[in-house]
Amino acid sequence: MLRAALIGFGSTGKTTLFQLMTSGHDAPRAAHGRGEASIGISKVPDVRLDRLTVMYNPRKRVPATVEFGDIAAPAQGGGARALVDVAAYKNADALVHVVRAFRDPSVPHPSGAIDPGRDAQAMEDELILADLGVVERRLERLERDLKKSRSAELERERDVLVLCRGALEDGRPLRALNLAGDDLKRLRGFQLLSAKPLLVVLNLDEADLTAASGGTEGLAAAIERAGLSSFLSQAATAAVAVCAKIELEIAQLDPADAAAFLADLGLTESGLDRVIRASYELLGYISFFTVGEDECRAWSIPQGTTAQLAAGEIHSDIARGFIRAEVVSYDALVSRGSMAACRDHGEVRLEGKEYVVQDGDVVNFRFAT
Ligand SMILES: Nc1nc2c(ncn2[C@@H]2O[C@H](COP(=O)(O)OP(=O)(O)O)[C@@H](O)[C@H]2O)c(=O)[nH]1
Ligand SMILES: [Mg+2]
User: Fold this and answer.
1) pLDDT band at residue 178 under the 50/70/90 scheme
2) Is the CB of 75 under 6 A from ligand 1?
3) Could you tell me if 230 and 291 are in contact, meaning their C-beta atoms sit under 8 angstroms apart?
4) 208-233 confidence digits (pLDDT tens)
């Protein structure tokens, strides 16, 4: 499951977006006191799962989910360091920065003027500063340990941390470093915030929303206007535009009315759909499916995940006892109409544990218990 942590300064619309992303699901687990997050779940919309559900008529239809965390806003200046200690944010796969672009004078802005470019950079500086503190503390300890005894692994860790410190001191986020897998693993335990992929959610006035959400051109223009173009050209950084307030109101209507309102605004997808799609694209996540009379279910995995690791998404026992994966593509299954027909046409493949699962694969894992 993909975990996203909402960040942003006060009154930018974080809690409104959180409600938008998690409405229509179980009540979120509320935060208890300072330093805790409300945790909510979004269902990932997927027409392919709808189609499979019609085909199998299972007792249960289980979409993939995205977990969102929402905490009280850090104040400008010294804020992001507080995030480092929020347990629910430590395992976040991505940070979702809600940036205010709506002008509504009835909602005061702490710094007076509306300036999304400034706010995006200010949060970035907070993340960088927070990471610099973590990296410097770890380096001090490492240097001490290395004096007592040398070890190739500790030396490599030191080298990576020195590289990180250099970037952070230059004001560059760690996600821009494109570190290799092994080095990323070395850093994982520190939960460095600026290393996480960043989705900027531009929270616009209703009047600006249509153009910005109607296509990539509109979004690019809104980004340009917001002064975010160069900020967003960085690695592992992406943006999406919403009007959290209106889109929350729409999401609370019944589906037919909601669709009519979206159409009125010239939108083809709900705010929830757009934010989830942008998160998946940012992180390079794909979906595979398991099907049957009991349950049709979608699972999310990073692109490039092998069959054995994908099996582990379902249950560690399935990964451990992995024998083979029976795989058919969604397209083949839908066009043939049944698994049996796919078998007759030789379209069901038997794959080993190193097989890289593809978007839309329908998988049946065979495993020994
Ligand atoms: N006009 C307008 N107001 C918004 C929008 N999103 C949030 N707000 C309002 O801004 C205020 C702060 O929103 P909230 O979600 O609590 O912000 P948070 O402090 O970042 O969690 C509330 O009064 C919201 O109704 C928006 O897109 N447009
Ligand atoms: Mg809030």
Assistant:
1) confident
2) no
3) no
4) 887 776 666 678 888 888 899 988 98
